[in-house]
Structure formats: structure tokens, C-alpha cells
Amino acid sequence: MSKFYSLIPFFFIFLISSCDVKTTSKSYSKLKINNFKLNQFSNNGEQLYSITSPISTINQRQQIYNLDKTIINFFDNNKLKYTINSDTSTLFNDEKKIILEGNIRIIDNAEDKTIINAEKFIWDIDKSKFQLNGNVSLNNKFINLKSSKASLNKKTNIIEFSNPVSYKYKDNNNEEYNISSENAYYNLKNNKVIFNSSKRVKTKFAY
Questions:
Q1: Does a structural domain hold residue 182?
Q2: What's the chain look like in SS3?
Q3: Is residue 60 in some structural domain?
Q4: Which residue from 1, 45, 137, 195 has the least number of CB within 10 angstroms?
């Protein structure tokens, strides 16, 4: 999953390429863009990500981009790896930050189809940090992990879930484990989970 977080910080330079642009303000400080589409490639020509939106608006003075029904696709070796969907998104050019809001859904295109849901997704491009807020959940055929927020630093490739964490796991023998903790750390490379709490971690086994 490392490619998901290895994006070039010159994101906003190319934002209005490949777009149908229509001005809607008399002062021309705002532009309306229909069928917004952005493709970003690496120096060797590999596609890194694409962003699409049916309708978007650009505030040229403040350098703020508002996108409706945003879809972000991430690629690895030109193959689709992850897709993020949201109701809306706001791109802050000066701050190099992207905020997605409403029905956040991150879908892993791998065989286990891991899905992460949240109400809000914040991406600090320069610091390569990502934060998920509000009813955060991670689900695949083995794991069901829930918390109020989560954060990721791409250098470690570990997602920290916190405040508090509820975790369900079903093994190959169909045995179910329920765990409650203050924090949980999910390793994107090996899919392992580590729990941490100042109090005792509560575990329940179901057979």
C-alpha cells in the first residue's frame, strides 16, 4: 500500500488541465469546471493518481478548489490499487491540503477488498500525513475495526486508530475475537494489528 502514500507534492500545479472551464462570476475570481479530471504521472511515465468530479468551482483569489462527488484513484505500476470516494472535497493550494467530506470510502483493489469508511479525510501533502475523522471503520473478510478517528504517516505505513477502538476478528476456523482498547495500530505492509491502552485491553472470544 506504500504507493498510496507516495505522491508528488506538486499536486496543484496541474489542477485545471483536462477540464471544461466555464466562468460564473462577473469578477472572474471564480471559475466553474464541468467534468473535472486530473491525471498525475511520475517522472518515468507511471500514472500515480487521477481525480475526477462532475462539477467543481475554483476561487482564483484564495486558490481554493471545491469539488463535488470526488473520486480519487491511486495506481501502482499503472494498475489500479485504491479508490477514494467522497460527497465533496476542498483543495487548498496555499496550504497544500485536501479535505474530503461526506461518506468517505477507501477501497483496496486487492483480493481481500479492504474498505475504510469515515466522515472526513484530511491530507497534508507536504508532511505526507493523513487523518480520518468520524465513525472510522476498517473492514475486510477477517477484520472489523472501528474508532472515532485514525491517522497515517506514510514513513511508517501504520494507521493509528484511537478514541476508543472496537475490534472484531474471525480466523480461518471461524472463531471470533472481540477486543476493546484505547488505541490500535494497523500495519499496512503485513496486515497486523497491535493494541495499546493505559487500562487493560478487553478481549472476548466467541466460538
A1: no
A2: CHHHHCCCCCHHHHCCCCCEEEECCCCCCEEEEEEEEEEEECCCCCEEEEEEEEEEEEECCCCEEEEEEEEEEEEECCEEEEEEEEEEEEEECCCCEEEEEEEEEEEECCCCCCEEEEEEEEEECCCCEEEEEEEEEEECCCEEEEEEEEEEECCCCEEEEEEEEEEEEECCCCCEEEEEEEEEEEECCCCCEEEECCCCCEEEEEC
A3: yes
A4: 45
Residue 101 lies in a domain: yes
Task: Give the domain CATH number at 145.
Answer: 2.60.450.10
Specify the pTM.
0.76
Number of domains comprising the chain: 1
Could you list the pLDDT tens digit for every one of the 207 residues in the chain?
A: 444 433 333 344 344 444 444 444 444 578 888 998 888 888 898 988 888 999 999 888 888 999 999 998 988 888 898 899 999 999 888 878 889 999 999 998 877 778 999 999 998 877 767 899 999 999 887 788 889 999 987 677 788 998 777 877 776 777 777 878 888 888 877 778 887 766 554 443 332
In a domain, 204, yes or no: no
